[in-house]
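Students often ask why we bother encoding 3D structure as a string. The short answer is that it lets us treat folding as translation between two languages. Here is a chain of 247 residues written in the first language.
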Amino acid sequence: MSMRRASGFAIGLVLASSAFLWAGDKKEKAPASGMVDSGSFGVFVRGQRVVTETFSVQQQNGISTVKSRLQDVGDSVALKQHSELEMTGLGELMRYDWTDGTGSLLVTPNNEFLLEKITSSPSAKAAEQPFLMPSTSAILDNNFFIHREVLAWRYLATNCKTEDASTKCQQGPLEFGVLVPQDRASLRVKMELVGREKVTIRGAQRELMRLNLVGEEFSWSLWVDDKDQFKLIRVLIPDANTEVVRD
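And here it is in the second language, the structure alphabet:
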């Protein structure tokens, strides 16, 4: 499900000491280290589960690490795609690694650029591609939905606050830029709060907060649980007949 074929992805920043989770209360300090989130997402196409994404988001010694691994349904042995994203406490990229067991890529900051190194096989020489983007730009690669959770956290921390136990955001969408390493492309996307909605998750009705994520050629809906640290619960991609649900 590439960026263009699956209708696109978005941006994030600020995975700094989990501060995005406490953005509504500036008086409360975020924990210095520990696990921020972990679990798995089921990816369903036309109602059929096709991929499971296992992920973790951890903050340790001022470094935020987002790890993700994809596994095809029914294939419990073969190594599939996995990625690791590291950022400083200020949300600046340190490195991003991706591999599918054969090819690999690495993104690192290089002065005012982001430099991507792509290797098609273990024995191949790496090709390089620079992007004129700051180190605070987000890495949101294909297929890794935990990156979309980080985007939602950044949007909420940047544009919203909590008043009387409810989340209120500035009107209008907020625009971000993002690098998609597998596509070797940079994009501009927008995110906007829609409001609280009742949705059915595995047969049970839940009230969640909906965010819309749109770009030039795609429109997605994301639902996060504002009662549980704004964790991503569901993603709907209508154009691809795809639904992503937290297990």
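Translate back mentally: The chain has a mean pLDDT of 84. Keep this in mind for the problem set.
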